[in-house]
Amino acid sequence: MPRYRFSRYVVSPRRRTILRDGAEQPLIPRYFDLLVFLIEHRHEAVHRRDIFDRVWSDVVVSDSALSQAVRTIRRALEDDSREPRFIRTVSRHGYRFVFDGVVEEDDDGAWPSLAQVSDDAAAGTTNGPAAPDSASGDGDEPFEPLLRRLTETPATVAEEEEQREAAELLHGLGTAEALDRLGTRPGHALARALLRDTRWESPAAGAVPLVGAPGMAATTAAVIRLRLRRAARIAAARWAAASIGGGVAGVAAGAVGGLMLAAAPGSAAPASLSAVLAAIGGVCGALGGAGVGAGLAVAEAVARSRRAAALVFGGAAGGGFVGASVQWLAFWTLTAVFGLAVTTGGGIEGVVIGGAAGLGYALAAPRAGGGLAALRGTQRLRAIGHIVVATALAALALTLAGRPLVGGTIHKIAQQSRGAQAMLTPLGRLVGEPDFGPLTRGLIGTGEGALFGVGLALGLTRRP
Q: Does residue 385 sit in the same domain as residue 273?
């Protein structure tokens, strides 16, 4: 495995270390991978898409995450984006490592001498090291200019990125001291939120607690806004995919159930009933997938600590909201239009199944640094399996507790409707029950939960 020497720096992929004048420079693993990737492809301009596929292959992130990574690497190399010596931005394309004097050599375990590195630096440039691509204020008081920048309300995307850079610099100066100096001055909630959010990409960052901190509620809200804004496009795509997946699963469940009902012994249901049940299943599945998918997408975009709890809560909240809305609409529709007093499920069922889906996803999908997990191959299959098992067991538990899902609700409505052909009693005869008994209810409920889990998982784990 080679290592790379250029100017005052030595980059060793084998040791996963970067040295400047013999001193190790802290860099989080993903940013180190990006630096090595750019050096390896230094003879070409690397497209952003190729960088995402290589460095962020397990996570979906926005372009701002890449910009932040390049900014941090430039700071570690004392590079300047306006007059780059090492990393140049290629407009509307990506980035290129432009330093010509890179020495590639075998990493045999012995570091090059400091004199050798100094000779490389002297040979590689006639200018002194570039000023860091940042404004840290005067030498006597570096904190105040950065803190002032953090407490100002940004008006443009460029100003937002400058604020994140200021927060990263404050972490380098000392997180604890920055928080002490911040205090409760006007705008402290936004500043604390920026420090909290950027600590994940700052190797030298300390803790930025929310609990017990001044303005805890305002800071938490600011953190959520920051992360949602940066992940809005990705979360929206994931929510839409989960809704489509749930809808397709609902159509399949309704169509299969209708055909089985038409073929069951003693059934008077026509085969055309499967189309009606497929439509009902598709609507219910799409709404359920939208609710649970939105809850999970938002939770994953916002939460970086306590991720599992956030996913369970997000799935339960999204499923519960949609379920309660559908339950209310169904009750008043049946009562006002058809005169049927049927108690339908929805809210509780949405909470349980949504929470189960969140738990299955949290167990299978690793925490993604700065974005939403993008699972591939066996990882994706494992996540689908976890979600399917979790939603199937949740549906079975609801059925055993007397809480019917879509199929059971249709049966209850058909029982009270004169001449209805959608009663599921004939399905019981397929499993040896004279009526729509507990075994039939359990099998249908488990099947509904499993199919919904398949559709939801396929949409949730699809890489945009």
A: yes
